[in-house]
């Protein structure tokens, strides 16, 4: 196969029309941290924001580029969700669904397209519980996104792996993935309509406490989640795993209504130090409550067991990092337990 060299990594930045995280540069402010797991952090919180108390952490991308009752704090259960996937998503798809976990294929509409999602929840638990939207990488709604939804169900949440492209489209080649991602991010209002349709579907499920919905995203999906936060989406929290940090339009003061946790690789060329600084400055100026965690040595798509092979195949700066994968999952677990307990 013809090598893409370093053209594709730089194009990744253009995919999101975000210039690898470049934004306007508001004045910086002080930081307030939620303790990360084995990582270097750069954290900023809005003044007078209620960050709560972090819950004690309890103790995975397919093809890579890349709880409790309604009125009580969500205390995720452990099961096998403590451990990241040991294989790429193609193998994850072949694995049987864990005992007690129920899944459902769903179809919904929004933003001019019909989308195909995947729901997962623990059928042994009674009553509604917090919901989590899982936004896929630029490869599309594939087995990896579904695997993460199942892992969240094992923690006691109702999870929906969303479809931001429509018709369940997926890509096996960076060129196709780029086209899908560019088409989606070209109109963020349309992307928001697709996100809102997924959020509504999840919130209205009998298994979900519709007042407690969060979103997590990987790579492209992390960038989508962050842009939804910039656009004022009402969510309990947003977690971005090795996501794009830049913004077409920086968040306005007071626009961000949710807490944000950014989990990036310290050696990710798609999230260099200046992009991280620009994001921090943007969030500080917007008065957002956020935390940025950097995992030393981790590259792009570090949560995806299939990342290394895909990076080698297409000469992209991708690599799986088991330690950073596990640490970032623990950080997400603590974050979700805390924001859902409010």
Please give the order of strands in the largest beta sheet.
Answer: 1-9-8-7-6-4-5-3-2
- How many structurally independent domains? 1
**Low-pLDDT sequence parts:** 1-11, 13-80, 83-94
CATH class label: Alpha Beta
Q: Helix count, per DSSP?
A: 9
Mean pLDDT level: 81
Q: What is the overall shape?
A: globular
Q: What are the secondary-structure elements, in order, as H or E?
A: HEHEEEHEHHEHEEHEHH
The share of residues in helices is 25-40%
Give me the secondary-structure category: alpha/beta
The profile of the biggest β sheet is:
9 strands, mixed
CATH architecture: 3-Layer(aba) Sandwich
Distance between the termini: 51 Å
Evaluate the radius of gyration. 18 Å
Topology diagram in text:
Elements: H1 7-15, E1 40-44, H2 89-94, E2 101-110, E3 113-122, E4 129-135, H3 143-154, E5 158-161, H4 174-185, H5 188-203, E6 208-218, H6 220-230, E7 237-241, E8 259-265, H7 273-286, E9 290-295, H8 307-314, H9 322-340
Parallel strand pairs: 4-5, 4-6, 6-7, 7-8, 8-9
Antiparallel strand pairs: 1-9, 2-3, 3-5
Give a description of the structure.
The radius of gyration is 18 Å and the shape is globular. The protein has helices at 7-15, 89-94, 143-154, 174-185, 188-203, 220-230, 273-286, 307-314, 322-340, and strands spanning 40-44, 101-110, 113-122, 129-135, 158-161, 208-218, 237-241, 259-265, 290-295. The chain has nine helices and nine strands. With 342 residues, the protein is an alpha/beta fold. It has one domain (7-46, 59-71, 83-340): Rossmann fold (3-Layer(aba) Sandwich), CATH 3.40.50.1820. The chain starts with 6 loop residues before the first helix and ends with a helix. A nine-stranded mixed sheet has the order 1-9-8-7-6-4-5-3-2, with helices on both faces. Helix 1 (7-15) runs parallel beside helix 4.
């Amino acid at each position: 196969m013809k090598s893409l060299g370093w053209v594709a990594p730089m194009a990744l930045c253009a995919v999101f029309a975000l210039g690898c995280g470049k934004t306007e540069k508001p004045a910086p402010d002080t930081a307030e941290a939620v303790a990360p797991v084995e990582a270097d952090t750069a954290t900023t919180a809005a003044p007078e924001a209620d960050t709560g108390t972090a819950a004690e952490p309890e103790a995975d991308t397919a093809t890579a580029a890349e709880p409790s009752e309604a009125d009580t704090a969500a205390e995720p259960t452990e099961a096998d969700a403590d451990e990241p996937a040991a294989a790429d998503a193609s193998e994850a798809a072949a694995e049987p669904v864990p005992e007690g976990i129920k899944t459902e294929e769903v179809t919904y509409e929004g933003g001019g397209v019909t989308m195909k999602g995947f729901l997962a929840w623990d059928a042994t638990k009674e009553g509604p519980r917090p919901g989590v939207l899982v936004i896929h990488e630029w490869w599309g709604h594939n087995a990896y996104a579904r695997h993460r939804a199942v892992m969240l169900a094992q923690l006691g949440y109702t999870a929906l792996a969303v479809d931001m492209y429509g018709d369940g489209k997926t890509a096996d080649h960076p060129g196709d993935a780029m086209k899908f991602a560019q088409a989606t991010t070209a109109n963020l209002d349309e992307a928001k309509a697709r996100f809102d349709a997924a959020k509504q579907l999840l919130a209205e499920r009998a298994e979900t406490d519709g007042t407690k919905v969060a979103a997590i995203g990987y790579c492209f999906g992390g960038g989508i989640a962050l842009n939804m936060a910039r656009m004022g989406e009402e969510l309990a929290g947003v977690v971005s795993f090795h996501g794009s940090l830049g913004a077409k339009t920086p968040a306005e003061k007071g626009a961000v209504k949710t807490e944000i946790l950014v989990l990036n690789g310290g050696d990710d060329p798609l999230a260099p130090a200046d992009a991280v600084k620009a994001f921090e400055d943007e969030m500080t100026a917007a008065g957002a409550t956020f935390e940025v965690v950097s995992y030393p040595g981790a590259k792009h798509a570090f949560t995806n067991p299939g990342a290394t092979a895909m990076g080698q195949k297409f000469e992209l700066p991708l690599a799986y990092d088991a330690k950073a994968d596990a640490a970032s999952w623990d950080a997400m677990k603590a974050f979700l337990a805390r924001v859902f307990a409010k």
